[in-house]
Amino acid sequence: MNNYLMIHYGELSTKGNNRKEFIRCLNVNVKRALKKYEVETKPTRDHIYVYLHKNNIDEVISTLQEISGIQKISLVEKCALDLVSIKEKALEMILDEGISSFKVDAHKAKEFLNLSDYELDCLLGDYILKNVKLSKVDLHNPEGKLKVMLNQEGAYLSLHNYPGLGGYPLGMNGKVTLLLSGGIDSPVAAFSLIRRGIKVECLHFASPPYTSMAVIDKLKDLLKKLNEYQSDIKLQIVPFTKLQEEIYKNVSEPYCITIMRRMMVRIGVKVAESNNCLALATGESIGQVASQTLESVKVINEVTNFPILRPLATLDKLSIIDISKKINTFDISIRPYEDCCTIFKPKKPKTKPRLDECLKFEEKFDYDSLIKDAINNIETIYISDKAKKDD
After folding, report:
1. Domain boundary among 131, 163, 195
2. Residues 57-67: pLDDT tens digits?
3. Which residues touch 159 (CB under 8 Å, ≥6 apart)?
4. pTM
5. DSSP assignment letter at 196
């Protein structure tokens, strides 16, 4: 029975104290995610070893594949740190799998066996060939790649690898406030941030009675999907109706979207700062719509010096849709419920807005008091995956 898993780290170039923090943070996340299983974890400089006490390998691997910071997971078998034991274990694994072609890839043989990695590759390959008549070595396209990793505790051999999310461990790179609309883009932006080790809190702008409660249910369903990658997500809902109505009373129609986005950023920054977030984030993709041209982005950014992350900035729509399907948010995102960005959509929005024009429009109404009122009436909801939550 295979009773070890070996976790390979996502960002192999991470060094020094950052590497130590990477390993510490990832090990905490792995232990939390695997809390309901009877497992032990042991972090080392190069891998985290997971020892399984029960035959629940498939469930554990599936859980690990949802944790950011893991490049791949290897199913490994351990044996004593001597050449005879390693040969016997390698042969046993090849025979059990019925592999017709293979390649051996050894690491740290010099340190523990006084052999070069290449010499150990050849010794194991020769031993397998002599004992498995129908098998052959194939260095370029083998049916099975036998990896042999040595350390002071023994030899670890693997034939099966499973892909992970890659990136950084969740929480290692701080926390952001994401503007969540409920469309296709913003959940993908959330996933992209989580994958880079950034914890996400969400902010949604609601405009009842123009928008319905069905939109909030939609958001909850989206975040439940994202719970697979971040077990707890805070959702804050901003009542945006009064501010939006004032915008459409006082602003020329082509500029309404630009002014609305400027207000959203102002509110988002205040909320982010109050929640100790390090940045604001959006699902914007450059050029996709009128408010996402570089000219629009520049004018919208003018309201703050606070960092604004746009993880989807260079992705085209098809690429974003592909990711949304992989993380199972696409079918939820396309539910036909309007949000505050679509209910008053202008016929010809300004694609190259001017800052001086924006400032003139904003002088026409007291947006500061409206922003303050909106923030004071924010509703907060927590979306959690109870099965993964650390009690």
Report:
1. 163
2. 999 999 999 99
3. 75, 93, 94, 97, 99, 144, 145, 146, 147
4. 0.90
5. B
